[in-house]
């Protein structure tokens, strides 16, 4: 048995070929899924409500005060 061969008979090269083929299959599925949803079909990415971002509240100010060096 060569140093590159595993017990089941697969070589490192065969393993890497299989990984590349699997990655290609995943990419093809993702492209196909994107093609199934036409633009403007009502399916949109989830966005937070306006104003739902960072807010400096009292407990945040307290943390800032205690974290000063």
Automatic annotation (TrEMBL):
Keywords: Signal. The keyword Repeat does not apply. The keyword Signal applies. NCBIfam families: formate_TAT, TAT_signal_seq. This is Secreted protein. It comes from Inmirania thermothiophila.
């Amino acid at each position: 048995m060569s140093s590159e061969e595993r017990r089941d008979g697969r070589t490192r090269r065969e393993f890497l070929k299989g990984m590349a083929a699997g990655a290609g299959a995943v990419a093809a599925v993702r492209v196909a899924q994107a093609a199934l949803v036409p633009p403007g079909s009502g399916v949109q990415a989830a966005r937070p409500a306006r104003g739902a971002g960072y807010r400096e509240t009292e407990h945040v100010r307290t943390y800032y005060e205690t974290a000063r060096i």
